[in-house]
Each structure stands twice: as structure tokens, then as C-alpha cells.
Amino acid sequence: MNQAFVFMGGTFDPVHNGHLRTALEIQQWLDVPQVSLIPSKQPVHRDAPGCTSEQRLAMVDAAVADEPSLRADAREVTSDKPSYTLLTLQGLREELGETMPICMVMGMDAYLTLPGWHQWLEFLDYAHIIVVARPGYHFEPDETMQGFTRANRVHDTATLLSKPAGHVLIHEMTPLGISATQVRQLVTDGYSPRYLIPDPVWAYIQDNNLYGYTTN
After folding, report:
1. What is the DSSP string of 32-44?
2. Distance CA 55, CA 195 (A)
3. Is 96 exposed, middle or buried (0-12, 13-18, 19+ CB in 10 A)?
């Protein structure tokens, strides 16, 4: 088994089966012990979530409680700093040392927006980026991302994990067609999101009256 710290960041508002299935498949594909899910405290690049960071973390905790290959990581929620990816990567590198590979997993859509992220060109100083793309994707980066990808891309996990940081690997897989927006809208409209999210997450939403849920 390969030793690396692999994580998916995100709002997880709420965490759903698409997130979890992607994380589990990445864990199996890389042959690493675990993939961590790191909910953001206050997303810098998007609107405020529909519930608190503590509630979103609690839902991730509930979702992965019975799956040893996945874990919830509270570092951004408990931090007193903004949820900038660079700060998270710097903290991980300081914690894990200079030799442990760190891999940040993100979708293709998010990857193509990196030039708008805080000090994004420094990310590869601390970690690798694994980009999840749909099979047969049509890669249409702007000139900046085209050059960035060409300069840093590798094509196999052995090369990726041979260094602690510095590479981009694009991995094709078919994600489940589920979105957090879809889940929130179902709950708001009074419908059940069951089978889109884990049952413990649905129970938490009901117990805490999240996303407009009401028993009436």
C-alpha cells in the first residue's frame, strides 16, 4: 500500500454519495490507506453555505463513520484562519514533513478556475493535484491553464507518488450525477433525498431542521 495524504476539500453542503463514491474510488485507485474529506469553514470562492461549518463537518463525520477508508478532517472548520487552500496545504506540509506525498483531489470544473484562487501557483510547492474528469472529457483550458497543465502533468500514479509534490494527474472516472444543490432543493421542497445521501446524513438534516426541513 502506498503512503500518501490524499484529500478532497469542499463545502459539503451537504456531503452526498457522489462525493463519497469519488473519494472511495480514488482511495482504491491510489492504493492508499485513507482519503480525507476537509469541509471548508467559510468558502472563499462561493456563496455562504446553507448551514454552519460545524453542521457540515458533523454530516461528513456521520457519512464516513462506518467506512475506514474515508475520514472527516476538521482542520479548516476549527482553524481561526480563512479557508484558503494555500493555508491548508502549508499546514499539511508542516504537519506531515517534507517527504510525504500530499494529493489534493478536485473536479475538472474547479481545476479550470484555479487562476482565480489565492496564490494558486504555489499549490504545487506543497502538493500534487489530482483532477477528476469524466471519461471522454473535452479539455478546454485557457492559455494559462494549458501552460500550467503541460508543464506539470504526469500520467501514472507511480510517477505522481515518487515525489512529495509538484505534479498534476488527470484521472478519468464516472462520478455519480448528484449535486448538493439538488439535495438541498429536494429537502426545501419537502421531498426525501434518500439514496442520494447516506441515511445518517438524512437523519442529521431532519434532526436539525436543515435546508428548510420541517415535520409539518
Report:
1. -S-EEEEE-SS-S
2. 20
3. middle
Q: Looking at 35-39, 112-116, 163-167, 171-175, which range is the least confident one?
A: 171-175
* All cell numbers assigned to 136: 471522454
Euclidean distance between CA atoms 72 and 41, whole angstroms: 13
Q: Which residue has the cell 510547492?
A: 125
Residues 6+ apart with CB under 8 A from 116: 45
Rounded distance, CA 70 to CA 105, Å?
14
Give me the DSSP letters along 31-98. Answer: T-S-EEEEE-SS-SSSPPPSS-HHHHHHHHHHHHTT-TTEEE--HHHH-SS---HHHHHHHHHHHH-S
In tens, the pLDDT along 52-101 reads: 999 999 999 999 999 999 999 999 999 998 889 999 999 999 999 999 99
Rounded CA separation 64/21 (Å):
11
The DSSP symbol for 197 reads B
Q: What are the φ/ψ torsions at residue 92 (nearest 5 degrees)?
A: -65, -45
pTM of the predicted model as reported, rounded to 2 decimal places: 0.94
C-alpha cell at 150: 503541460
The cell for 64 is: 464516513
